[in-house]
Design goal:
The complex is a heterodimer of chains A (140) and B (252). With 140 residues, chain A is an alpha+beta fold. Chain A has 5 helices and 4 strands; from the N terminus they run αααααββββ. Chain A has a single domain, classed as Ribosomal protein S3 C-terminal domain (2-Layer Sandwich), CATH 3.30.1140. The longest helix of chain B is centred in the first third of the chain and has 28 residues. In chain B, strands 1, 2, 3, 4, 5, 6, 7, 8, 9, 10, 11 and 12 form a 12-stranded mixed beta sheet that branches. Chain B has 2 domains: 110 residues; 97 residues, Immunoglobulin-like (Sandwich), CATH 2.60.40.1930. Chain B starts with 12 loop residues before the first helix and ends with a strand. Classes of the chains: A alpha+beta (140), B alpha+beta (252). Chains A and B meet through α2, α3 and β3 of A and α1, α2 and α3 of B.
């Protein structure tokens, strides 16, 4: 009965609800920041995609066959955004490093580096398998 | 309506505090849902990318083996190469427990995964066919994939000759296909039958139309006008796979 009679706080209740709705709306408008896990997966997907695209017509394996590391670096550099750092290491099937110099576009720009391994097979009549390790990072 | 006073109007505070508590509860629930949504594992998408890579590697292996076999190599090379590829793939699969099985086709004219059919009617094909089964399992996901890969190079050519004095001018029209799509050639080797022997043509005039169609023109040595001319054509496509066929040409 007392609660029914006390009708003087309704406006404040409504004010409080409006305030809470305002806070909720503001939160909804704030862009959700991508977690490091999601961005790492995106970067891994990008690395895999770059290698897969270059290998789709055997071009990647051809460059590795001929040890054309500079051309290989240029191909990867042109396939990635300018703000992405990369470092590629080419191994033979016994995991011996084949590239005699670094295939990279400079020093790493972030501590957060993802690494993707890609199995590349030569399409020439002399069968050869290579393991390509592509490391990528972007500015935080 | 009387004048409102903050000092005297103290009867709604409990409801206000309750409303605020409820709104805080809403907020924490919303934040909890957002945080939980971020933790949803999306490993499956990444795993399918790995499978795409394996498929490309397997396709390259088929091309390499078929190029080898059609250029005089070991006819069992496909199984050997795939076994080597399997070892490398399994050795480098760190993120998931992977099994890979393959079987080379041994039916429908295929032998050890190869079908090399070079006919005498101007049509020839070189083909490799292998079935693969992949199974991958990791703590967050498991997936299976099964597919058959087929790599086929086909040529077909038609032609005739014109008797010019003591020799024949031969005109051939060649079509090249890779997996039923127009493809380009790397080189052609042409020979014609001259009695019991085959005479190789060293420099035919080759015209490419850029769509997998070529015309080849060359002159033979002296040959009696009444004889039909048997032509042998060997074509190496841009992947290095050789395909050949013979054709008996008639005069126009």
């Amino acid at each position: 009965m007392r609660l029914l009679k006390n009708k003087k706080g309704q406006v404040r209740v409504i004010e409080a609800f409006f305030a809470s709705m305002l806070i909720l709306s503001c939160l909804a408008l704030i862009p959700t920041q991508s977690s490091p896990k999601t961005s790492a997966l995106n970067l891994a997907w990008k690395a895999q995609n770059v290698l897969l695209t270059l290998d789709s017509d055997g071009h990647l394996a051809n460059l590795v066959d001929n040890h054309e590391w500079t051309k290989l670096g240029k191909c990867i550099e042109s396939s990635l955004p300018l703000t992405t750092w990369f470092n590629l290491t080419v191994f033979d099937k016994n995991l011996n490093i084949l590239n005699d110099f670094s295939i990279s576009n400079g020093g790493s720009i972030s501590d957060r580096i993802i690494s993707v391994d890609y199995i590349c097979v030569s399409q020439s009549s002399t069968f050869a398998v290579y393991v390509l390790q592509l490391q990528l990072s972007v500015m935080d | 309506m009387g004048k409102r006073s903050f000092k005297s109007d103290k009867k709604g505070q409990v409801i206000i505090i309750t409303a605020l508590l409820i709104s805080v509860l809403f907020l924490s629930t919303a934040l909890y849902v957002i945080e939980v949504a971020k933790e949803v594992p999306i490993v499956n998408a990444n795993q399918s990318d790995v499978f795409s890579g394996y498929k490309q590697s397997a396709t390259s292996t088929l091309i390499s083996a078929l190029a080898n076999a059609t250029n005089g190599g070991n006819p069992n090379v496909l199984g050997i190469d795939l076994a080597e590829l399997k070892t490398v793939i399994l050795t480098n699969s760190y993120k998931a427990l992977l099994t890979m099985d393959f079987s080379t086709l041994n039916s429908s004219g295929y032998n050890n995964g190869f079908l090399i059919s070079w006919g005498a009617n101007g049509e020839g094909s070189s083909s490799a066919c292998v079935s693969f089964v992949f199974a991958s399992s990791s703590p967050s996901s498991s997936s299976d994939l099964e597919y058959t890969l087929n790599v086929t190079s086909t040529i077909n050519f038609r032609g005739n000759y014109q008797q010019i004095d003591g020799t024949k001018q031969v005109n051939l029209t060649v079509n090249i296909l890779n997996e039923d799509r127009a493809a380009l050639a790397q080189n052609f080797t042409i020979s014609y039958q001259n009695g019991p022997d085959w005479t190789k043509i060293n420099s035919p005039t080759t015209t490419s139309f850029g769509n997998g169609t070529y015309t080849l023109t060359f002159m033979t040595g002296a040959s009696p006008p009444s004889e039909p001319l048997v032509i042998s054509l060997l074509c190496q496509d841009q992947r290095g796979i050789s395909t050949g066929a013979n054709l008996t040409c008639t005069g126009t």
